Amino acid sequence: MVGHALATGAVTASIASIPGSGIDIGTVPGSGIDLLSVGAVVFGIVALLGYGMLTLVVGWLLISKAKSAVRAIDKQVQRKPVRSAGFGIAGVIAAAGGFLLTGVVVGTLVDIGAPLQVNGLLLVAILAGFLLVVVTTALGNIIAGSFLIRQFTDGLPKLWLALVGGAVVVGILSLLPVVKLVGPAVTILALGGGVGWLWERWGSGWWTNLDIDLFEPGN
């Protein structure tokens, strides 16, 4: 949002008017419509829809390739929400700290004469952070949808229905001023559920059973 605002400001300052014409190309003459503002709104809607589709695709991959893991994480959050929230906040702090540490290391290496290619580490950190956000957002949508479905049925929720339903409900709530933080909150819960699940399995050698437990195909 900050970067988008700065870019919009720069464009507005540079092309606000055509010299000598008296025509403000930022508005439709006689209508008072700000084309740049309308464009920003359209861009925001397109970006939101694109990100929503991306999380649906990632959620589909998670359900297809790691159904048992998704159910286990959902179970963690549903049964231990406070614990999951704590793990999620700790995970966010750790991720932010790791990114900052990467920046400090890269800056130090450049200062002592390392080639500029080490800046690629920052790109890797950014991509890893983006991937983490997308995956946990998709998980959060599944968990939110699962919670809603559980209010109307006693059986295990269909993960596909939970994914789509959660994405729609969380997306709508995120647009409302009063409850717009529901999206980040659900994402943090999903992150905490995943961290808690891995934490419990750490002593059982979960890394030796990845093919069986973590990536188990399912519908």
TrEMBL record:
Keywords, alphabetical: Membrane, Transmembrane, Transmembrane helix
Listed transmembrane segments: 38-63, 84-110, 122-147, 159-176, 182-199
Protein's name in the database: Uncharacterized protein
Lineage summary: Archaea, Methanobacteriati, Methanobacteriota, Stenosarchaea group, Halobacteria
